[in-house]
């Protein structure tokens, strides 16, 4: 996933703006007012922070050759991201929308089931359960999807982009810090080469249209919602550091110290790195590989904290496991026998009940 922070781009909207995750094209047009520039960059910063912060929190619970013309490729991409965007946005807004449904809302349960074969050879292909609330969220997301498909408006683009980012940070898990450092280190070199070493990023950015970047107009104060002088941020600059920050949050929780030191440190480091990217890009008027600044910040700051606290070993030895598999035997050893009570009462005591439950849960089948 490429990533670059792009300088302002002029166009009629996201449909005419770069559509790659990272992109940039220089322009001779002077920027808008300082207030508009500050609003645009501040909004990009805020939109980048929201998916990382809430995606990280939610991640804890979830423990080519060019054959067709550009027009048809853009149409294919639009339809592809239209469907994915609706599903991602529906999944994103569902927890929020559930709080607004009244208590007497008729929430019916549904199941979408596709199978193949019959009898003993029957095999499930799709088995998806949902309810009426999910249908409402899907309908709202579909309306936004049609709006994006017809208008390519920057607000619809950002709604899809934020949904993709949040779902990416929530669902894409790194299982240890070493893997995260290797991933970020490799993409650090990759991003620098493809932005400074070639013009591929700019070419791709001008060729495709898809909601895989966050955009915000710098001339919003002058033109309102029809503004078209965009500053852009690739989703790679959000998701890639975001999944590493989410990993550090889960590492914080594993320490059981009731503090989120590493999460907040890396989150502040991300703000610093992205702010530095925006500053450099604005001063030199050239697209910047955001990971050039984000990777050293997001890895370096938490590592310094770990050195200061003497927890470097714990950080790099942390390995995520599926805790749910361990829950049934958490309070008893496998094969615990059922103990007889010394009490003459025929009613099982609480201790006996617990031991019986342990025996049932922990004993191998056939024992």
TrEMBL record:
A cellular-component GO term for this protein: cytoplasmic side of endoplasmic reticulum membrane
Transmembrane segments: 38-60, 72-93, 171-196, 230-249, 261-284, 290-308
Taxonomic superkingdom: Eukaryota
Low complexity composition bias: residue spans: 10-26
Alphabetized InterPro entries for the sequence: Peptidase_A22B_SPP, Preselin/SPP, Presenilin_C
Protein's UniProt name: Histocompatibility minor 13
Encoding gene (name): LOC114046875
Location (main, coarse): endoplasmic reticulum
Family recorded in the similarity comment: Belongs to the peptidase A22B family.
Recorded topology in the membrane: Multi-pass membrane protein
Subcellular compartments: Endoplasmic reticulum membrane; Membrane
Residue numbers spanned by region Disordered: 1-31, 319-367
A molecular function (GO) term: aspartic endopeptidase activity, intramembrane cleaving
Key words of the record: Endoplasmic reticulum, Hydrolase, Membrane, Transmembrane, Transmembrane helix
